[in-house]
Amino acid sequence: MQGKKILVTGPTGQVAGPVALTLAKDNEVWATARFSEPAKKAPFEKAGIRCVPSNLETGDFSQIPRDFDYVLNFAVARTPDFETDLKANGEGVGLLMSHCRNAKGFLHCSTTGVYQPNGHVPFTEESPLGDNHRVMMPTYSISKIAAEVVARYAAREFGLPTVITRLNTPYGDNGGWPYYHLMMIKNGVPIPVHTDKPSQYTLLHQDDINRTVAGIVESATVPARILNWSGQEHVAIEEWCTYIGELIGIAPKFEYTEKTLESVMTDNSKMRAIVGPAKVTWKDGIRRMVEARHPDWIVKK
Questions:
Q1: Sheet holding 225-229, edge to edge
Q2: For 56-72, what is the mean pLDDT?
Q3: What is d(CA 292, CA 125) in angstroms, rounded to the nearest whole number?
Q4: Most CB within 10 Å of its CB: which of 34, 60, 111, 221?
Q5: How far apart are CA 58 and CA 61, in angstroms?
Q6: pTM, rounded to two decimals
Q7: Tens digit of each residue's pLDDT (9 = 90 or more) over 158-213
Q8: CB 144 within 8 A of CB 154
């Protein structure tokens, strides 16, 4: 993708920031968030990205133009309050799509946290939805399902080509869930894993997110396309934590409990048909993450 005008929401988050910086190399990129801490604009402005404040909860997009080619919505609210999260995640995406209704494509980043837990069966885009994250984040799954419904409606109402991506366990040199596990292992903190073991997920490295995002938003359709956004290697928390432990010379401790997330594995066949498979293997990605964040922790062999 080159020479396009692109809006990225939620750039201060783990996933959207690297996406914005990658796209800015060849495009005119605008980034929007509350930017309550002005210093967070610095790395984006240095890369030539135009940073403007907005508020999804109130629908204040007064400083955002309407003439974008593509919009990538990564913004998300995670509070314990349903009113706040339904307004920000649900109403917010509809208001943003209305504001940017003339775009060629709109990507709404959802989550595989919308699926109903089903043991160790990989989810397809047609799998039943449910309250997946209730045990850890009470509003998350429901507000994200609500946001998908609003995005589906807005795609049809405004004729706005839309793709809803259900993202599964993003990570990379800048962090992610495996990074929190690294810190827990380093500090001897037991890692919660579900009693229906092993706790399996389908990791997706930030490099693969950056590489595939353009092709995915260009595949947007009316009605909205639904797409699992993940790798194709199903890996257990127990596996990647054991590997992290080998890298830093500290064996992980596990605490089996029902008060944590169950396995969330996804089939990425539809994604592969559009942009190809994920290319970063999980061991390579995990090793790179540790090397990038704490190279001095690596055990020399």
A1: 50-53, 28-33, 5-9, 70-73, 105-111, 162-167, 225-229
A2: 91
A3: 34
A4: 111
A5: 9
A6: 0.95
A7: 999 999 999 999 999 999 999 999 999 999 999 999 999 999 999 999 999 999 99
A8: no
